[in-house]
Specification:
By secondary structure, the chain is of the alpha+beta class. The chain contains ten helices and eleven strands. The strands form two sheets. Strands 1, 2, 3, 4, 5, 6 and 11 form a seven-stranded mixed β-sheet that branches. Strands 8-9-7-10 form a four-stranded antiparallel β-sheet, with helices on one face. The longest helix has 20 residues. The chain starts with 7 loop residues before the first strand and ends with a strand.
Length: 301
C-alpha cells in the first residue's frame, strides 16, 4: 500500500449525546463541523496547526487527539507515514458537551484511512467504528459523528450503533456557556446506583424519545425528561440546569447536551419563529447556535 499524493480534507459534525434520558446510548449529529486537512510529508516531521476552538491551548505534538487517532488507524492498516502535516479548523467548542473529542477521533481515523491508497480494504467501517468507540470509551458520540443523524448505540460484546429516522421538522438551539466542564468531572458526580423507579421511568422516556424524534416531535417535551444524570450534575453546572428548568417550565424540550454544560433545546426549524424566540433567551456571555440535524456524518471533501 502507498500513501496518496497531496492533502486530504475531512469534515465531521458536532454531536449531542444522552438527549435527556438516553444516557450513554442516544446521540444526534448537528450541523456544526470541524474540518481536518492532512498530508503525508517526507522527513519524519510532525506539523500540527489549529485555528478556532482549542487554538493556543491544545497540544501540537503526538499527544494531539487527532494525531493519536490517525496513528491508531495507521497501525491497523500497517503503514505509518514518515512525516505528517495536519491542520485543524475547529468550530465545535471544546469541553462543552458537543462531541469535540468524538469529532477529533472520527475525523482522525477517517483522515488517516483516506491518506492510504486502499486503506478502507483493511480498516473497514465496522473496524473503524470499534476503534473510535474504544478510544472514546463509549459509543454515544462517535456513532452520530460517523453515521450522521440520530443513533442508538451501546456495548454488548463489542460496540454497536443503529441509525434511525429523524423527523424533518426537528432542529435545535444550543446555548454554550463561556466556560466548560470536563466530561470526567461531570461523570464523577454520578452515583453508582439509582432507585428502581427512576430507572424504570427513564427507560420509558427513552423509548418515547426514539418515537418522538422519528415522527412525533410534539412529544419531545415529555420524552426528554431525565431521571438518571442531569440533576446529579447540577453542582458542576448550576447555570445550565437553571436554564433547563426555566425552558422546561415554559414547555420547551430542553436538556443538558452530553456531559454539559451546553444546553440544547429542540425547535421546529432553524429559521422558524420558535427558534428566533428561543435564541433570544440566550444568557449574557453565552454563545447561541441554531442548528439543523446533520444527516451526513463524517465526509471526505
Amino acid at each position: 500500500m502507498t500513501f496518496v499524493e497531496g492533502p486530504v480534507t475531512v469534515t465531521v459534525p458536532a454531536t449531542s449525546a444522552n438527549l435527556g434520558p438516553g444516557y450513554d446510548s442516544l446521540g444526534l449529529a448537528l450541523d456544526l463541523r470541524d474540518e481536518l486537512t492532512g498530508e503525508v510529508v517526507p522527513g519524519g516531521t510532525l506539523e500540527v496547526t489549529v485555528e478556532g476552538a482549542g487554538e493556543g491551548t491544545v497540544p501540537l505534538d503526538e499527544s494531539h487527539l487527532v494525531v493519536r487517532s490517525m496513528r491508531a488507524a495507521f497501525e491497523i492498516i500497517g503503514k505509518q507515514p514518515a512525516g505528517l502535516r495536519l491542520h485543524c479548523r475547529n468550530r465545535i467548542p471544546h469541553a462543552r458537551g458537543l462531541g469535540s473529542s468524538s469529532a477529533a477521533i472520527i475525523g482522525g481515523l477517517v483522515l488517516a484511512r483516506a491518506l492510504v491508497a486502499g486503506g478502507e480494504l483493511i480498516l473497514d467501517d465496522d473496524t473503524l467504528f470499534q476503534k473510535a468507540a474504544e478510544i472514546e470509551g463509549h459509543p454515544d458520540n462517535v456513532a452520530p459523528a460517523f453515521h450522521g443523524g440520530f443513533t442508538i448505540a451501546g456495548d454488548d460484546d463489542g460496540f454497536f450503533a443503529v441509525r434511525t429516522a429523524v423527523d424533518p421538522r426537528v432542529s435545535v438551539v444550543v446555548f454554550v456557556p463561556a466556560t466548560g466542564v470536563e466530561t470526567k468531572a461531570a461523570r464523577g458526580l454520578l452515583p453508582d446506583t439509582v432507585p428502581h423507579s427512576d430507572a424504570a421511568a427513564d427507560a420509558g422516556r427513552t423509548a418515547l424519545l426514539v418515537a418522538a424524534l422519528s415522527d412525533a416531535p410534539e412529544h419531545l417535551h415529555r420524552a426528554t425528561r431525565d431521571f438518571l444524570h442531569q440533576e446529579y450534575r447540577r453542582p458542576a453546572m448550576p447555570e445550565s440546569l437553571a436554564l433547563v428548568d426555566e425552558l422546561r417550565a415554559d414547555g420547551v424540550a430542553a436538556i443538558v447536551s452530553g456531559a454539559g454544560p451546553t444546553v440544547l433545546a429542540f425547535s421546529s426549524g432553524v429559521e422558524s419563529a420558535e427558534t428566533t424566540k428561543l435564541a433570544a433567551r440566550c444568557p449574557e456571555g453565552w454563545a447561541c447556535h441554531a442548528l439543523s440535524v446533520d444527516m451526513d456524518g463524517v465526509r471526505i471533501l
